[in-house]
């Protein structure tokens, strides 16, 4: 039976969004989460979906952890939407069955889907 599994990683990063109506142009940070959803068949020996998603998700968010997201993602908006898209593109290359990536912080999140 095909199943979905969610992998979650946490990170802290600051950002500044020019022209944003909510945060304005002020520098501020968040306790972020990133979640990857993978679809596949559980392994008959282990009962779990064998995926590299947790490893690649953790390695990717570690690149952003305790950093200024604007500098880490040149050319992208350092918003949940932008970070979710960046993570999705990275994980999609290595994680067959990737369905979605959600990124957010308290009260706000964005999801990029296949």
Describe the protein in words.
It is a single chain. With 114 residues, the protein is α+β, with helices and mostly antiparallel strands. Helices cover 27% and strands 37% of the residues. It has a 5-stranded mixed sheet. β4 and β5 form a beta hairpin. α1 (53-64) crosses α3 (80-94). The chain starts with a strand and ends with a strand.
Largest sheet: 5 strands, mixed
Report how far the terminal alpha carbons are from each other: 21 Å
Low-confidence stretches: none
Beta percentage is 35-45%
Which percent range fits the helix content? Answer: 25-40%
Mean pLDDT over all positions = 92
Strand adjacency order, main sheet: 3-1-2-4-5
**Overall 3D geometry?**
elongated
- Along the chain, the helix and strand elements come as EEHEHHEE
Count of alpha and pi helical runs: 3
Radius of gyration: 15 Å
By helix and strand content, what is the structural category?
A: alpha+beta
Number of strands: 5
Could you name the key traits of this structure?
5-stranded mixed sheet; alpha+beta; 114 residues
Mind sketching the topology for me?
Elements: E1 3-15, E2 28-40, H1 53-64, E3 67-68, H2 69-72, H3 80-94, E4 98-105, E5 108-113
Helix pairs in contact: 1-3
